[in-house]
Design brief:
238 residues, alpha/beta, Rossmann fold, OB fold (Dihydrolipoamide Acetyltransferase, E2P), 2 domains, five-stranded antiparallel β-sheet, elongated, CheY-like_superfamily, phosphoprotein
Length: 238
Amino acid sequence: MINVVVADDELPAVEEISFLLSQDSRIGKIHRATSGAAALKALEENDVDALFLDIHMPALSGLDIARVISRFTHPPLIVFVTADEDQALQAFELAAIDYVLKPIRPQRLAESVRRICELAEETPAKPEMITVDQGGITKLIPRSDIAYVQAQGDYARLHTQDSSYLIRVPLNDLEQQWGESGFVRIHRSYLVCMDKIETVRLQTGKAAVVVHGAELPISRRALPYLRERLAANRVRPL
């Protein structure tokens, strides 16, 4: 689902574009803006994949907005929707993916959505960020930085290479939520990211994995499943 901002200084135009987009099953949330400033505010407050921008708006034009978001780390895609035929070259120089002329034909707008979807699939997914509190400060850390998780009662401690963070979420809940993202339960007290395992030690009566230098025990119950996961990653001759 694609989340979008529709920005035009004429409210009827915003409503028309929003209505047409709402009929497309590929479109998720639609945020409406009747000024450039309102469009930027919508970008700050929401997760947005694409903007449908009018070019001529007071104060901040669509072209101005395109220049601003070009400096973003992950800029949303831009489609200009305008009655001005003469700004196409400048629009594409600002990396717009489409230029739709008014009056809008539904089929033409659907083509823009198709382009957005194709480009969104080609764009690497943004890392999922985890909110943690440390020393009275709230931080965001990428889940991809987490090597393993340790149970501490109703809490869980997230371990990265350089630090650890305590969150009020039971390990069982994280096991369910993060299982599809490569985290494996190896013990009642540990959940490990498979990509971060450096060594697996299988000895008589004792099994363990090494992650960032820490040796973590593998329970007898978890060992068969971990063996299966490791076997699936082996390179075999054709």
